[in-house]
Amino acid sequence: MKYILLLIIPVLLDMIIGDPPNFPHPIRYIGWIIKKYENIIRKSNINLKIGGFLLTGLTLITVTGVITAILMLAEKISHNLNIVISIYFLYTSLASKCLDVETRKVYRALSEDDINESRKMLSYLVGRDTTSLSKEEVTRGAVETVAENTIDGVLAPLMFIGVGMYFDAPVQFAFLYKSINTLDSMVGYINEKYKDIGFASAKLDDIANYIPARLGSFLMLIGGSLLGYNLKNGFKILKRDNRNHKSPNCGYPESVVAGLLNIQLGGTNTYFGEKVYKPTIGDKNSEIVPSNIVDTIKIMYASEIILVILIMTILSLKFTM
After folding, report:
1. What function does this protein fulfil (predicted)?
2. Rounded Cα distance, 44 and 188, in Å
């Protein structure tokens, strides 16, 4: 019963409340820890690639240690307090509502034909230059963002929570993943400043997302088919184009969405003033339109619900044996 509460309540809180502005979100503190360690390593004389491994290890140890200490202290005070704090931490490890809200801002601006506002809203979500994107390119950027983050922000954390429940440490497992993900988002860039110090973080993120990206993409495929999207084409494009991405993992959710919606993703983008060519994903059977952003959000929620049911089923079997 405890683990059902620790799964269902955080998911519902995330879907309903999301990430309110000025909310004391733990991920912000993880970011602060990463920046502190990064500054210390850069000021030392250590080789930056070796320093990157130290940065990754110290961050994971610190975050896991702090989380464990908080939960142990809460348990000493009251078991119910431990449950409440655990629910809070698990809720903040999920991002479906936040992803929904932020990408709908792009959708609304596009629906109102306000291309400048849509570019501005997208710029908060992606690393690419959005200043001269067309309506189709802005839409593509938003769809790709939802597709990729369905894994990073929703399904992968849920999978780590589920695995953590087997080891009686769902919060620690959730924040182990979130720390890895945050490290990658802060230092895992392939540019002059971060290519060495961010090497370890980027590689660890690839490893952490290896199974979630593949299993999660099948859940997205199932969710999309239940919503009436093109299952046959979704499977075809997933099988054909999953490697058409510089990331070993991001091509999976993007290819599923491209196939389910009969659209084409990928292509050339500009990052920090430099054009970066990406292979295309999917076939241009249909023109990409703003409503595809909402379609992708629906696929995200459908796959999340399927995963919650799957985790509950596995946990029920475990604890009744």
Report:
1. Converts cobyric acid to cobinamide by the addition of aminopropanol on the F carboxylic group.
2. 20
DSSP letter at 68 equals H
* Distance of alpha carbon 95 from alpha carbon 116, whole angstroms: 26
224-240 per-position pLDDT tens digit: 999 999 999 999 999 99
Burial grade of 83 (CB within 10 A; 0-12, 13-18, 19 or more): middle
Range of the domain at 277: 1-320
For the purposes of burial, counting CB atoms within 10 Å of the CB of 239, is it exposed (0-12), middle (13-18) or buried (19 or more)?
A: exposed
pLDDT in tens, 192-203: 889 999 999 999
Residue with tokens 């503190």: 29
Nearest to 7 by CA among 214, 210, 151, 163: 163
Cα atoms in the Cβ-side hemisphere of radius 13 Å centred on 113: 0
What is the tally of structural domains in the chain? 1
- Give the separation between CA 55 and CA 241, rounded to whole angstroms: 34
Helices (H), the chain: 2-16, 26-43, 48-77, 79-92, 96-111, 115-123, 135-149, 156-166, 170-187, 199-208, 210-226, 231-241, 251-261, 291-320
Question: Please, which residues bridge with residue 281 across strands?
Answer: 265
pTM above 0.85, yes or no: yes
Q: Tell me which DSSP letter residue 188 carries.
A: -
